[in-house]
Amino acid sequence: MAGGMPIYWPLKQNKANRWNSSEQLYQASKYDKDTVCLPASNDWGEPNVRKRIFSQKNPRGAKMTQKCAVKAGLVRKDWDSEEEIRIKAMVWVLELKLYWNRKTFGKVLAETQAQDIVEVSGKDSFWGCIEKGDNELVGENNLGKVLMDLRARSSDIIEGHFTYSNGFLLE
To answer: Tens place of pLDDT for every residue, the chain, 171 residues?
Structure first.
């Protein structure tokens, strides 16, 4: 959810391709380009979900602005499938984040050296782990796993060798 690390997709550095955060690009990858849904509190705004996410200035806004589409069941059908498209999309987004932000994100990732990376969460046991007292963590820690894999492959990613070169934005 960290801001201040823009991503350019497609891979051309211009304003039309500038995503303000990895969260923004990840949330947008849940929808095809024509998905429309407006929150009841925002009936005057942009109806296109992906465009509304793209217009957000911060990661939290990108996540919050698409909640009506989640509630309406408009998330791509394969998002929670056995193929784990959401994990693949996260790999893609974080590879791009590293590629475009090697001096910031890359430095922080490298500083973890060979340590385990764990997303400690108050409620999300899929992406992170939840503390259950006595320093016990319970959860899948998928974000930590993706970050540790990214760290191991960072030099290839910085050179532009991506796992999913076409990305996960539906056309």
So the answer is: 788 999 999 999 999 999 999 999 999 999 999 999 987 776 678 999 999 999 999 999 999 999 999 999 999 999 988 889 999 999 999 999 999 999 999 999 999 999 999 999 999 999 999 999 888 999 999 999 999 999 999 999 999 999 999 999 988
Extended beta strands in the chain, E state? 7-8, 18-19, 120-121, 129-131, 137-138
Amino acid sitting at position 9: W
- Give residue limits of the domains in the chain: 7-71, 85-158
Helices H / strands E in the chain, number of each: 8, 5
Residue type present at position 17: N
